[in-house]
Design a protein that fits this description.
This protein is mainly α. It has 17 helices and five strands. A hairpin with a 7-residue loop joins strand 3 and strand 4. It starts with 5 loop residues before the first strand and ends in a 40-residue tail after the last helix.
């Protein structure tokens, strides 16, 4: 799309395609904030459209729903800069999914459904694409067969089991690299999230979302190889049983041996370690994960310091969060809070810096019209955002 020529299109000729709520999300507050940035600095990236096959001369949005709303509905502009590409509905959905995964505040279930659909579409376009998980299983099986044959003297072993695994791990799939590049995840995180998404049907992902099953528990269930056992566990959760109880009832002695809390804390620490992207320098990490937000701030100095601090303490905070969030949930459910709960809740619930919104008072400038430091954000131009845990 980079080589497509930009042109001005009349806003009234553009429509947003109807789609499921599972992958198309819209945040009106973000669009209104974005409008102020566009008014001040202009629109950095043109929206992407395709011709509407049912209305000649009209267009459908592929990427840029928030930008279109900001320009047409908030700023009341007649025209918007756009790139027009001639692709079909499936290709448009593919392009839209990649942007949704990066920009939109999807729930865990919506994110997994989008990723699952992206993989299914990619597989159809690339029938020779290798599923890294399947390849790993095949390599493991081949290694076991070689071991048995070698033991019986039928053949000579040429490669150890660990060597074949390591060779695969050093070569992430092209799809994993594409997801990582589009979303800002590390390749390791993208591979893990794809594995979880592919383990469930869309209906199961929606059910896990409705029952507020967290990412760590989803990954635990996804590791179960038997489809019928996974389905039975999800059914029990839907009927009101907690995840640990459902695992125990279906798997019996094969259920995770440690307490649910300690398992979750350990898994959360591993997840945080994977997402910290230690191979990136601080500047590279900021550009990869926070580059879009930095561009919106008049003076991003304070934001950069806070974002890097978030990175440096991520693993420790995630481990701590895994250990205390159960108790915090109980206090939250009772709706009787103290000052300490407020501090604790803010610490364990703060979201990633890329999701921190611009300050609603100064809209990223850090000061008011008189040049005085903004009293809401103390001159930073941004505010923190919390998420459910």
């Amino acid at each position: 799309m980079e080589d497509v020529k930009k042109e001005l299109v009349e806003c009234k000729l553009i429509s947003v395609p109807k789609g499921g709520k599972d992958v198309r999300t819209f945040n009106k507050e973000f669009a209104q904030t974005l409008a102020q940035s566009i008014k001040t600095e202009g629109m950095h990236n043109a929206i992407v459209l395709r011709p509407d096959p049912e209305k000649p001369g009209h267009y459908l949005v592929i990427q840029g729903r928030h930008r279109l709303y900001s320009v047409s509905r908030v700023l009341k502009e007649q025209f918007i800069e756009a790139k027009i590409v001639d692709i079909d509905e499936k290709q448009a959905e593919f392009a839209s999914l990649s942007e949704n995964l990066w920009r939109n505040p999807l729930t865990k279930g919506q994110h997994s459904i989008a990723l699952k659909r992206w993989w299914e579409y990619y597989s159809k376009l690339n029938p020779n694409a290798k599923d890294r998980t399947a390849a790993a299983r095949q390599a493991k099986m081949k290694s076991k067969i070689e071991e048995v044959l070698c033991h019986n003297g039928a053949t000579k072993r040429t490669q150890g089991p660990d060597q074949s695994k390591k060779a695969i791990k050093r070569q992430p799939s092209d799809f994993t690299k594409q997801v990582a590049a589009a979303t800002g995840m590390s390749e390791r995180t993208a591979e893990r999230e794809l594995r979880v998404a592919k383990a469930f049907t869309e209906e199961q992902l929606e059910a896990l979302d409705q029952m507020l099953v967290g990412a760590i528990d989803r990954e635990t269930i996804a590791r179960i190889k038997d489809d019928s056992e996974r389905g039975e566990i999800i059914n029990l959760i839907v009927y009101g049983m907690d995840v640990h109880g459902a695992l125990k009832q279906v798997l019996g002695g094969r259920a995770p041996g440690r307490s649910n809390q300690s398992c979750e804390a350990a898994a959360a620490a591993a997840q945080a370690k994977g997402e910290s992207d230690t191979e990136l320098s601080d500047d590279q990490w900021l550009e990869t994960y926070c580059g879009d937000k930095i561009k919106l701030l008049k003076d991003p100095a304070k934001y950069k310091v806070d974002a890097l601090l978030f990175r440096w303490v991520l693993e420790a905070r995630t481990t701590f969060r895994g250990k205390v969030k159960t108790k915090a949930k109980l206090v939250k459910a009772n709706k009787v809070y103290g000052l300490f709960f407020g501090v604790l809740n803010r610490l364990i619930a703060v979201s990633h810096p890329k999701d921190w919104p611009l300050c609603g008072s100064c809209v990223g400038k850090g000061h008011d019209d008189a040049g005085q430091s903004c009293k809401t954000c103390y001159g930073g131009g941004y505010q923190l955002k919390t998420e459910d845990y």
